Amino acid sequence: MTDRFSAYIHVPFCESKCPYCDFCSYTGMQDKFEAYFAALSKEIQSYSAPRALDSVYIGGGTPSFPGERYIEQSLNSLFAAFGRSGSCEVSIEANPNSATAKKLKAYFESGANRISIGAQSFVPSELKAIGRAHSPREIFTAMESALKAGFENINLDLMFGLPGQTVESFEFSLKNAIFSGASHISCYSLTVDEQHALYGCISEDDEREMSSIAVKMLEEHGFFRYEVSNFAKTGRICRHNAYTWQSQEYVGFGAAAHSYIGKARYENTQDVDAYIDRISSGASARSLVYAQDRKTEIAEYIMLALRTVEGIDYDRYYRRFGHSFLSSWENEARKLVDEGLAAIRPDRFFLSSLGLDFANRAIICFL
Amino acid sequence: MGEKQKFTRNFCIIAHIDHGKSTLADRLIEMTGAIESRDMAPQVLDNMALERERGITIKLQAIRLEYKALDGNIYYLNLIDTPGHVDFTYEVSRSLAACEGALLVVDATQGIQAQTLANAYLAIDAGLEIVPVINKIDLPSADADEAVRQLEDYIGIPAEDAPRISAKEGINIQDVLEAIVHKIPAPEDNDDKPLRCLVFDSVYDQYRGAIASIRVVDGVLASNSRVVFMAKGKPYDTDEIGYFKAGLVKSSELRSGEVGYIAASVKSVSDARAGDTITDAANPAAEPLEGYKAAKPMVFCGIYPEDGSHYEDLKASLEKLQLNDASITFEPETSAALGFGFRCGFLGLLHMEVAQQRLEREYALDLISTVPSVVYRIGLKNSTEILEIDNPSRYPDPMHIGFIEEPFVEAQIMAPSEYIGAIMDLCQKRRGIFKTIEHFGASRACLEYELPLNEIIYDFFDALKSRTKGYASLDYEFKEYRPSNVVKLDFLLNGDIVDALSFIVHESGAYQRGRSVAQKLKEQIPRQMFEIPIQAAIGGKVIARETVKALRKDVLAKCYGGDITRKKKLLEKQKEGKKKMRQFGKVEIPQEAFMAVLKLDD
Question: Which spans in B452-506 are helix H?
């Protein structure tokens, strides 16, 4: 189906838990690192159908929290078992306070070529308000260390809609990110459910203004929006995520890691002990979430593709599904165009910038 | 007197809701072994799931019990079930006409209530022998002596010897059976008169047509005879006759005084209506029995399928429902907001709710119903014609209205005395006209009010219950039409009137209702991509305004590899929600918004 293949490694450990985060992660498990990463290598080695990798992504949790040798070990296992293409993008998530020069250097030397730093904000009070353990100064230090270590491809994560954040203070953070040397910026609106203490902490008007300022400022400085919340300089689109949004296959290793292989989605157990036990005893940590029927496959394909600025490439869609996108979805597509949410071009269908703000509304037409 | 009549007793049980009528029926059935106990579901006479759940009985039925009394004789006791709710008064009177006696069940913890009184008076008026039964004596708060005193003082029936029982615990049930045998008179022996059977109920069976429950008053009904249903004069050959036990039990004849059924391939219950008289085609009776006044629907609402493609299903279901309940009426109506549906008429609010729930459950339909309305009589200027309007959409232009009349009911509300103030306050707010108050001792009182029916059909029961901690009971019956100042209240979304939200309301409450409905709509209508003005208007005049602000974004901040499944579920849920919305012009209206108009806090 595809010649691109991507691997994801989950590091479910953090020094402290951020109150807004819904990724799988645990604190106080330092004594499990050894066993966990041993199991991780074993899981990688026992994968039955390894193929050369175009992309590797180590996410978390906080991959930079455990010692660098664990990351080295994991990458070594992965490359030994799978092999890698010449242009393989190897990306690691890191927190400013744990991404030391030593670690970053070791990552680079193990084959990593992209770092993603969880900066979130450059304003100390905002960082504190969302429970982040680092200071703005540590963001700069981490950036500098990453550049020194040889990384040219660096992402900064930024958030807006934070408690106490103002349009001005967000602009301040944005400028800092833009001029930090990063080549990619992920810029998210804080998202928590209605019961959460952080829900509705700033006005909707401010939140919307921050969103539009982000798009405007980032594009003015050469960071092009390629997905709802992602901006990259030319050639710096995050490969792992781009593959996900193109519905390419990926294999996930580690507790809570997901895989998408052979038109089925899988999930590893979230429980670290269970993960270690199962892998050490030669069992699989993976369970089937569901096999995609054709309808689901098309729905998920469209759901993911419409989040990207490129949208749905007719040619790619046709090659995958054997029918033309517009022939099956013309009514839905036209309706969205009429509402100003989308545009139809000779080669693709994509959401307008208004459409990206109402992506859910657009996507559900195709479910 | 014939042997058959001598050992037959026909009785019903009347009680206020929840006083234990159905439980007592169960016990009687159990003790006489009419149904094997392994086949007993609690409250067997309430054979619809819905009845069991709501603790009320809607469709009446009958059962023959065989009881070997202490005198050594075997008696046939025909228990004819009666509905226990205010909307169904006319059904109660139907059952009464088939009986010689009635058990009047009173809860020893509550004493007599509004419906105890109302039903007891109905039974007395029908000439029945009343046998009081004091129930729930097992409960710690039971005061049987007080219940006896209330029966004697307020209804004037001797109750000193009344069986004191616990139907739930099965205590002293035999006393009840003995009282039935000895206090209730045997039916008259009229075997030699021309056949006359009173139809007191009729249910539809898809294989056998309407099955009529009957009381043979005169003559003998033989199987394989040719009978005439006198109302329409149509003759039928009987397929089967018999009596009720666990099911239908065939028999070769039913003599005068007996209760049973007849199946004669009658295609519709409307041809075998309760109240009709069956006679012998060969030897017809000269006069039919005195029937009942056909119950007239008093409350109307629009009922629409949630999914417009289920219109035909709704139609078929309503037809089936009507086969069993001829008091329901319906005719097609269309709404710009809700599409194709039906204007349905019911005896009262509870009847309406029960019918809606039966449609939803037994026929698996999802429905939207509009604000219930009573029937207004509207006289036009320069015309002698009087319109009967049960649907706001047919409300004439106010310019042409000469006068309007609305139905008033006479309501009896019984409650502990400490709630008198709260009840009076409520009735006052609902435009009630105070008539009398009767004190039953120091602790209980019965208030009589004249109330506009339109004030009762919204949420009067709920308001009454909440103000009296559930202790008040209500009974009402139609009194007359009176001149009234009602107006039609419309709601506009994005500048257009949503027909399904309009209703008719008294002028004095229009502003308040308009404001509160507009606020409710604001809460119920989700924000959309544009601002939506909500207006309440009388005629062309806007009396309240709210605004649903425009939605600013509708997007998930992130969706990575591990999120896909979960995020897709969220979106599917959103899609489901959207599907259930009604498209009205550009505006999407959730189903709940239509319901919001129905339930208003006091």
Answer: 453-456, 460-467
